[in-house]
Write a structure and sequence with these properties.
- The structure is a homodimer.
- The first copy, chain A, is of the alpha+beta class.
- The first copy, chain A, folds into 2 domains: about 10-145, PurM-like, N-terminal domain (60s Ribosomal Protein L30, Chain: A, 2-Layer Sandwich), CATH 3.30.1330; about 155-320, PurM-like C-terminal domain (Phosphoribosyl-aminoimidazole Synthetase, Chain A, domain 2, Alpha-Beta Complex).
- Chain A has helices at about 15-30, 70-80, 100-120, 170-180, 195-205, 220-230, 245-255, 275-285; strands at about 40-55, 60-65, 65, 85-95, 120-130, 135-145, 165, 210-215, 235-240, 270, 295-300, 305-310, 315-320.
- Chain A has a 7-stranded mixed β-sheet, with helices on both faces. Chain A has a 4-stranded mixed β-sheet with strand order 1-6-4-5. In chain A, strands 2-3 form a two-stranded antiparallel ribbon.
- The radius of gyration of chain A is 21 Å and the shape is globular.
- At the A-B interface, α1, β1, α2, β4 and β5 of A face α1, β1, α2, β4 and β5 of B.
- β1 of chain A pairs antiparallel with β1 (about 40-55) of chain B.
């Protein structure tokens, strides 16, 4: 199907849809469950399951460090991991615009397959629809994971005295996307990554993981403010402790952007008892996507729901969730 | 938020997104799991689970007999039911185009909530993205169901001698959508319906259900041809046994359409041993959405993978899956 593009007929449900499914999807995602092509996939379950969904509408569809396919797996896998679940199964729903090149679609599909393999999940069900448009591509993934006994990781569990850790530099995904969209030459790469290995090391360590949250849309400040509200605690971070790469810092300075509000796709916040902080940090730094992990603050009970950033000279400013558009959109 | 419309800022991940989620989604879908607003929902599982997904891109968004919200629940619930699973949980991913009225979105969301309640499923996770456009709305749902022990309903299980049943009239959904799109005045209503009650009665009856399949995109002929191929059997239906309402028949006659290739959203095909056919038919006809259920044919081993329609005068024609566009598109 070289040089071909998606046409409305690929969404008919008839022979053109069949060809598309077999030549593009079935080949890349092949596994025993999916290959049965039933209305629903039947798989072994577990006593407690975690379920989540995310849609991906990023433009451009390919960018330095990844593409919409890799994103669509990372986003959903990471959401499962944030509850301490072991990601197992993904479904994927493609909404394709007329004019999308089949070669490009194949790149995204292979990228999904590779990322799923890295993340340890099977793609077991899918759906494809075609709409009028100009070559766009939207992907929804839903994920099912198994939750081991006694695991209780939740936004409400943050406790006074806990340490706040982040797994790496902030803003890379957002800056990479913006630099593509604004045609600014940089070497910044998206951080899109599945955090399966990091989280499985953390859960296996016996550390009391109170809260995990991936730092995506809205950025670190939005995520921490939401956690402060959910746990009714005060979150305090030190401005200069938040890791930001020199390139992203330069890019942000140029455009007047705040890395605290910029999205990432392979970074998490962990809230752990202060006594476990060093060990958690070591584990994160030894993990594939965690070399820049850092301790960035602590939790207190002064003012429930508040988030503060301490400046280098000892001042404090209040941070809120992202207001309005905030900064140029990437999704 | 009366008279307001979706704007790009609703997809920012910040305060506008929060307002949208709380005022439109959380209120309608409210349940203990969803209300926790975690990255993933944690729920009790089961030894065997069924998982499926479907995206909905129908236009117009509202039509006689339903709307995209009702469709998005029926499609996924029915896919779970077709494996004999008890539908339990749904996720929903909304991709909203700028300009969609919030009043209209609220109608779809309430429709989803009502249909989910009717179908016996909980909506436990969701996601919202906003894209440029002209007021469109796309919904993806993924579903998780529990599969009871010993249930084995599959496309490959159809056996020679089995009876083929359909649960009602063919083509209603497709004809309803086309009449809206072509501004032809008819009383035809979409058949969009969750078949939870019908399937739970059938599975509880002890009848050996070999295959269930919902008759959606591609229509009855496409579905039966796919089942013939999967089971390597011959499917033979009698043309005049296939239920089609007088109105849909008239509409199709007018436009030169074949109801055998038209989509439905609340109908299923059941393949059962001939000895159970009468009882299965009785159960279907006594179910809420099955009063027009009919025995339409039988399965033989003459020619693996073939589908035939027997005409009234005793002739036979070969039916294939939908070729090309086939007929005006509805999704």
């Amino acid at each position: 199907m070289k040089n071909d593009t998606i046409m409305m007929v690929h969404g008919s449900g008839g022979n053109a849809t069949n060809t598309l499914i077999h030549e593009i999807f079935a080949d890349a995602f092949s596994n025993d469950v999916l290959n049965r092509m039933e209305d629903a996939a039947v798989v072994p379950g577990s006593e407690r399951i975690a379920v989540t969904t995310d849609s991906f509408v990023v433009t451009p569809l390919q960018f330095r460090g990844g593409d919409i396919g890799r994103l669509s797996v990372c986003g959903t896998v990471n959401d499962l991991l944030m509850r301490g679940a072991v990601p197992k199964y993904l479904t994927c729903g493609f909404i394709l615009e007329e004019g999308l090149s089949l070669d490009q679609l194949q790149i995204f599909v292979r990228s999904m397959a590779d990322t799923a393999a890295e993340a340890g999940v099977q793609i077991i069900a899918g759906d494809t629809k075609v709409i009028e448009g100009a070559g766009g591509c939207y992907i929804n993934t839903a994920g099912v994971g198994f939750l081991p006994e006694n695991v209780d990781i939740s936004a409400v569990n943050a406790a006074a005295g806990d340490a706040i850790l982040v797994s790496g530099t902030m803003g890379d995904h957002h800056a990479a996307l913006l630099s593509e969209r604004m045609s600014i030459q940089t070497e910044i790469r998206s951080d899109a990554a599945p955090l399966t290995e990091m989280v499985s090391r953390l859960t296996a360590s016996g550390i009391a993981l109170h809260t995990l949250r991936d730092v995506t849309r809205g950025g670190l400040a939005t995520v921490l403010k939401e956690l402060a509200l959910a746990s009714r605690k005060t979150f305090v971070i030190r401005d200069n402790a938040v890791p930001v790469s020199a390139e992203v810092r330069g890019f942000c300075g140029l455009l007047g952007l705040d890395p605290l509000y910029m999205g990432n796709e392979g970074k998490l916040v962990a809230v752990v008892p202060a006594s476990d902080a060093d060990r958690a940090l070591e584990i994160m730094q030894a993990s594939r996507y965690g070399k820049d992990a850092a301790l960035i603050g602590y939790i207190s009970e002064e003012e429930p729901g508040e988030l503060y950033a301490e400046t280098e000279i000892g001042g404090r400013r209040v941070l809120d969730i992202l207001q309005g558009e905030g900064l140029p959109r990437i999704c």
